[in-house]
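In the lab's daily routine, each protein ends up as an entry in a very long ledger. A line of letters takes care of the sequence, but it says nothing directly about the fold. The fold becomes a row of whole numbers, each drawn from a learned catalogue of backbone shapes. The protein below has been through that process, and both of its lines are reproduced in full:
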Amino acid sequence: MWDLLPKPVLGAFSLLVLIVNTFFWTSLLFLVFLIKKMVPRDGWRRACDRLIHELGQNWIGCNCFGLECTKKIRWDIQGIDNLKRDAWYLVLANHQSWVDIVVLQKIFHRRIPFLKFFLKKELIWVPMLGTAWWALDFPFVRRDSSVRKDFETTRKACEKFKSTPVSVMNFVEGTRFTQAKHEQQNSPYANLLKPKAAGIALVLDALREEIHSILDVTIVYPEGVLAIWPFLCSRSMEIKVLVREIPVTGELIGDYLEDRAFRRPFSNWLNGLWEEKDRLIGSMHRPAGAASEVAEEI
């Protein structure tokens, strides 16, 4: 059926499905959030938090189902078989497009605790989504804040994360990869921007007793990276994902802001991780010149 639709029509329909689904589940999320705030009892609020997270999982599940119904995605996923839903994870990934978030939600749905992102404070005003992120206790950070203020925001967010298993998501490059940004940074990596160590070091320090392990995620689009609208318009594509679980050892825990003796080895560890990821991305790509439907103009 979907093969018969023009791509813009398919994209509009896919977007409509996401909007309707988001409106339905975020309305329920906000309603439960209001009920939670009306009754100032810890037991009641914990019960509401569990319900809010279950609604969030259902929201993501319905989004994934909608994509499965409208697209033929050839998934090549490795490394997710032994994950746990009752463990705390720090999830790191390369970042190329908003589609990365869709991919992460799809592969980790109900395999690990609910993914929570650190978001720019301005995003709280995004219709429907901002309300949902707020109800789900996503931490918001200011774009122009100092590292020390970011630490305080991270510490407060992590205090909430200690009561219930959670997966803290961090795009270590801090922004989506583009060739212009790559050249501006003079990045030493062929496929990545420079990683930022402070954020993940602060999370590991704040959740040192809870974090089970780090999930290093490498996402590759062999047929070419898509922005969100071309992704919605596409009929089929291939997506490769490699997940590597890294144990959290004592060498990865320390005071990144004050302890210089810790800061340099931690940065060296992250740079080494990024060098390996850069090589992996190169090996996961198809040979140049491979035909691709998604490369066509929409």
